[in-house]
Amino acid sequence: MTDSWYAAHTHHWADWPLPELLHCKESTGTRISLVLPARNEAGTVGRLVERLRMALVEGVPLVDELVVIDSDSSDDTGDVASAAGATVHRAAEVRPDLGTVPGKGEALWKSLFVTSGDLLVFMDADLVDWGTHFVAGLLGPLLTDPEVRLVKAFYDRPLLAGGRDGTDQEGEGGRVTELVARPALALLFPALAGVVQPLAGEWAVRRDHMTSLRVPTGYAVDLAVLVDTAQQLGLEALAQVDLGRRAHRHQPLRDLGPMALQVLAALQARAGLSSPDPVPLRQFRSSAGGAGAVVRDVPLTERPPAAAYLGSAA
Question: What is the CATH number of domain 3-308?
Answer without folding.
Answer: 3.90.550.10
